[in-house]
Write a structure and sequence with these properties.
Layout lengths: L1 H14 L7 E2 L1 H9 L6 H12 L7 E11 L8 H15 L2 E2 L2 E2 L6 E5 L12 E5 L4 E2 L18 E6 L1 E2 L4 E5 L2 H6 L6 E4 L17 H8 L95 H14 L20 E3 L3 E3 L3 E5 L3 E3 L4 E4 L3 E5 L4 E4 L4 E4 L2 E4 L7 E5 L4 E4 L4 E3 L3 E6 L3 E5 L2 E3 L3 E5 L5 E5 L2 E3 L12 E5 L1
Parallel strand pairs: 1-10, 2-5, 2-6, 2-8, 7-9, 8-11, 12-15, 13-16, 14-17, 15-18, 16-19, 17-20, 18-21, 19-22, 20-23, 21-24, 22-25, 23-26, 24-27, 25-28, 26-29, 27-30
Antiparallel strand pairs: 3-4, 10-11
Helix pairs in contact: 3-7
The structure holds zinc ion (ZN).
Zinc ion binds next to helix 6.
Amino acid sequence: MKYFLFLIVILISTNSSRSQNAICAFDDFYAQMMGSGGSSDYEDNSIQWILDNPNFTGTYYIPTVVHILHDNGPENISDTQVQDAIDQANEQLSGINNGINNGHNTNIQLYLATIDPYGNCTNGINRVQVNDPVFPRELDTWLSNYTWPVDKYFNVAVIKEFSSSSLVGISSHPTTVEMDADTDGNAIRHYNFGNSGTALGNTENALVHEFGHYLGLYHLNWKQFGLPNDNCLPCTGTNLPDNANDEVGSCLHLGDRICDTDPVNWPSIPFGNCDIDNSGCETCDSSYDFNFPKDNYMSYDAPCHVTYTQGQSLRMYYTLEEFRPNLWSTFLPSSSCDGPSLDVTYSSNVFDYPSGVHLINGNIRVNNGATLNIPQDATLRFCNGKKLIIEQGATVNLNGTLTNACDGYWEGIEIKGAGSRLIANDPATIQNSNIGVDVNSGGKIEAVSTSFLNNTVSLQIGAIAEVCELTDCQFLLNSDYAGSNFFHNDVRNY
Ligand SMILES: [Zn+2]
């Protein structure tokens, strides 16, 4: 009888309108990727990490790119709807839903990427026209055509619809990424993305749910790898919800593998009834009366969603710390040059610039006797009109990227005075400047395999420059060039 009722619910779900009971394609995708058995390093390591770090907390900001795959229909949603979707997900991740602050704060936030994979400025929205914007439920057949590097960006594809009309979204999971890294990200139907434009509204949004899968969460009634089909309790009493240990049968192994979500057989019966007091799990032990946690973002009942839990945050923290360590930062990277201009001077020492992306809103000056090392994994983004000045007797070793900060071109590098040196080596890149390198009055440049990209003038050489040695350097312009085409020069003498 129970299975018959289950089938009835599925049929109702499938035939209902797009605004009701639409479901997530994650379970089918997971089954397709993983089969019915197997093991996962991610799962084994996550359990141990959670046992070792039960009180871990963190703060995470995640650069996000939204790929809008459209055929010029309503699925080509506005920038405003995209931003609203990000804002809504951030509220939900911080414990606020529909204006009410009554949930758990995960301390995880999304932001639209400001720099694309090539170092160019972006609003984090990538519009791609496709001929047939109806997609299967698999991620692997198409998502990888559009994704930006999955270790650096959270990729979300917004689509017209899935081939199965009841589906609203799909996500990868760390265990599926272990199988195929090309399938990493989310895909969400535009009706279910955000809270404005074509979106159906606050009760139908899917981003916060699919993002949970992306960070390692399962549906509340999860089953896998031959373990019991849910974490409803048998009568032995050995696998109580608060029994977190590394034994098969503990709450870290069963069901959704989260210890502070109540066990459920099926999280969405009856659909649309948000009364969490309904029993979600039958048990022969009458001392356990489990709630029906429809209010959790990993249930299917989007209209009932309110919160994640601390236990779910812990699993997401593990994913961010150990599985996606290059994805996030602990602060929101500044993309604004609106603040006060702060000049920085390095004097009489050796300084190693830290890795990562840095906004430079003043001039950097390296004085006589000082050396500044800019490593391969550092990107310095100079605000409009700012420059790097290498004074007489100073040295800059450049292996990283110097570029602009999206508010116009920066001025470039000025090498001035006897004994001042710029030593650039692969993969050094100097881009989006007015004069990439200006060698004058006794300065010296030695550049090997250095890229000069989209500079109005790449290299300007004064009459008394000491040395200008270039080996295998590239002078490039591409479609992103925003300088004056009329004045462009690879090398200009004066
Ligand atoms: Zn789901």
